[in-house]
Amino acid sequence: MDYRAITLDDRSLIDKYAGYAEGSCQYSFPAMFCLQAKYGDSIREENGWLYILRSRLGTRQYRTCLFPLGEGDPAEPIVRILGEARKEGRRTRFLTATKRQRDILDSLYPGRFSACEDRSLAEYLYDRERLAGLSGHQLHTRRKECEQFRLTYGGRAEIRNISPADLPEIREFQAKWMAEHGTGTENSYLQYESESTELALDNFEGLGLRGILIRIDGSVRGYSFGYLMTPDYMDGQHEKCDTSCQGIYSVLKQAFACAAGSAKYINWEEDLGIPGLRQHKLSYRPDILLTKYVISEAASDEQT
After folding, report:
1. Which long-range contacts (CB under 8 A, 24 or more apart) does 243-248 make?
2. Closest CA to 124 of 260, 239, 281, 255
3. pTM, full prediction
4. Topology of domain 124-269, CATH
5. Eight-class DSSP state of 61
6. Over the stretch 107-134, which tens digit does the pLDDT of each residue have?
7. How confident is the model over 187-202, as pLDDT tens digits?
8. Segments of the chain assigned to CATH 3.40.630.30
9. Are 66 and 77 spatial neighbours (Cβ–Cβ below 8 Å)?
């Protein structure tokens, strides 16, 4: 069975397997759909397992994929993946694998794979109820920021759920934000993110996205939206604010957490090794830092 591109019709298919993903945003349907141009994601379902190929991240030596998702023994799906790479004269590389996935490969093939932890790919998961209340001493500063925001803007600020009618203004705000922040080669990652955001906005309802919008004096000043991967995990995918409005990020994060329904955790994804982004995510005190590995199959003469 061949791999194929991800379409809007694959939402229920990918959601069916997301419960095996340990809350990782890598298996979030909108993220996979919107980042196909960057990663080259394609999928195949076979015998109760979901296979994800990342063709744009492959090399001459390695065929690159995510760890397959499904119920039961992963031995057969792993055999299939390794065989597909061998047919192409390549070895297999698993990107953003979890510790559990690393341990499975170690138990199935001792000495065949080398695993390298990649801190830039670690995902930040926050207890939704704690974030909704900004409770605890560690978030005292964030609570004060919210209080100051409300004192400053009062009735001038409107905080509510995003509706389809809001999308054109969010696009305008996103374009303005990019014009101010997205120039320069050092911000090339923002270009990919902006393209992903635009694709998400174009398909907002079809992707099942939901989120929060903040207006001040009638103008959009911030937005945050994401996707409920499973009943327990909300993927917080896209977020932008006008930082001249002091405290707006804290207000937005709290409002998003309040609107995330019954989810236990919000996954605000990785920091990509960007110092400012890492500092920002750490400042909200993640409850789980989901460790990620790049796992590479060794050449036959290197295997122990």
Report:
1. 245/149, 245/153, 245/216, 245/221, 246/145, 246/148, 246/149, 246/152, 247/145, 247/146, 247/148, 247/149, 247/152, 248/149, 248/214, 248/221, 248/222
2. 281
3. 0.94
4. Aminopeptidase (3.40.630)
5. S
6. 999 999 999 999 999 999 999 999 999 9
7. 667 788 889 999 999 9
8. 4-122+291-297, 124-269
9. no
